[in-house]
Amino acid sequence: MTSGDLHIWQLILHASWVVKFVMLTLLAASVASWMIIFRKRAMLNQAEKNADRFEERFWSGLKLTTLHDEVTHEKGGSQGMGKLFEAGYAEFNRLREQGRASADRMVEGAERAMRIALTRESDRLEQHLSFLATVGSTSPYIGLFGTVWGIMVSFQALANVNQATIAMVAPGISEALIATAMGLFAAIPAVIAYNRFSNQVERIELRLDNFKEEFSSILNRQALAIGED
């Protein structure tokens, strides 16, 4: 450990309890943010891969009934486009088997089921993004609060001193500025990750919405064909 590292640790250990609490809060926020960043990156990348694989299967010419059976029995359950397809096709078949539903009603029921599945999928994709946004927007201010408090305490200590020097206030100001640095350290990765993940989630949601519209058109043609039989 270098003397500079030791000096920083000494400043942290000698900080006031308010500044220490601010630092601990920022440290906890930073650790939580990095955990979310790693998990969210893996989840969104997997969601894009799942979408690519399902689209390839869907447009390969495979029968919808066969694809539905495969999706239904997937290990761990379906996600993403598979979830929308499963929900829409299951509702479409349920209304068709009743024998009393019109073509429009069958399609509307499938679209309603897919909208619900899309909403749930969007909630899953967007989970914890608000935490990253909160950390990114509030951490600098929390760190600034610790800095202001530390500087205030340092200057209050000069009240009983006849002759004030820079050397007397430098340690207190230095330890207070560490809080600002920690606030930026917690905020910058959170902001970058939030912007990147938000853009990635929007792209995935757009793909899901486009698939919903395309699949609705296919079901509409099937429903019209059934009505003509």
UniProtKB/TrEMBL annotation:
Ranges for domain MotA/TolQ/ExbB proton channel: 95-209
Coiled coil regions, renumbered to chain: 194-221
Single GO cellular component term: plasma membrane
Membrane topology: Multi-pass membrane protein
Highest taxon in the source lineage: Bacteria
Primary localization: membrane
Subcellular location: Cell inner membrane; Cell membrane
Annotated Pfam families: MotA_ExbB
Biological-process GO terms, alphabetical: bacteriocin transport; cell division; protein import
Keywords: Cell cycle, Cell division, Cell inner membrane, Cell membrane, Coiled coil, Membrane, Transmembrane, Transmembrane helix
Membrane spanning residue stretches: 12-37, 129-152, 172-194
Function: Part of the Tol-Pal system, which plays a role in outer membrane invagination during cell division and is important for maintaining outer membrane integrity.
Family: Belongs to the ExbB/TolQ family.
Subunit structure: The Tol-Pal system is composed of five core proteins: the inner membrane proteins TolA, TolQ and TolR, the periplasmic protein TolB and the outer membrane protein Pal. They form a network linking the inner and outer membranes and the peptidoglycan layer.
HAMAP family per the UniProt record, alphabetical: TolQ (MF_02202)
Name this protein carries in UniProt: Tol-Pal system protein TolQ
Organism: Marinihelvus fidelis
